[in-house]
Specification:
Blueprint: H1 6-15, H2 18-27, E1 33-34, H3 35-39, H4 46-58, E2 62-67, E3 70-75, H5 77-109
Antiparallel strand pairs: 1-3, 2-3
Length: 110
């Protein structure tokens, strides 16, 4: 069965790019940054950075707000938490399997 979630698809698609992941890391250092401030950290055009920010915004990982002519970008940690919760399901399955393997190995040694 294939689990379909457009929100998760958008999150993982946006995280598939190293520049976007780096932008999220950059935004962790400041509550808000202008798109121009973000662009200063990359060898990309302003338009290129704005496109990356737009992908992150569409995935719900960041939000933008306008102050005058400036667009300020900030993280939306609740969206990352949604992806983390999804991945944690698989972590618990793997941990259960390791626990069963450990129990089997312990019984075998005795």
């Amino acid at each position: 069965m294939v689990e379909c979630s457009l929100a998760l698809d958008n999150i993982f698609f946006s995280l598939s790019d190293a520049t976007r992941r780096d932008m999220l890391g950059l935004l962790r250092t400041s509550p808000e940054m202008g798109v121009g401030e973000i662009a200063a950290h990359y060898r990309l055009t302003f338009a290129g950075v704005a496109k990356h920010v737009k992908v992150l915004e569409a995935a719900g990982l960041v939000k933008k707000r306008r102050v005058g002519k400036q667009q300020l970008v900030s993280l939306r940690p609740e969206t990352a938490a949604h992806a983390r919760d999804y991945l944690n399901q698989y972590a618990s399955i793997v941990n259960q399997r390791f626990d069963r393997l450990d129990a089997l190995l312990t019984r075998t040694r005795q």
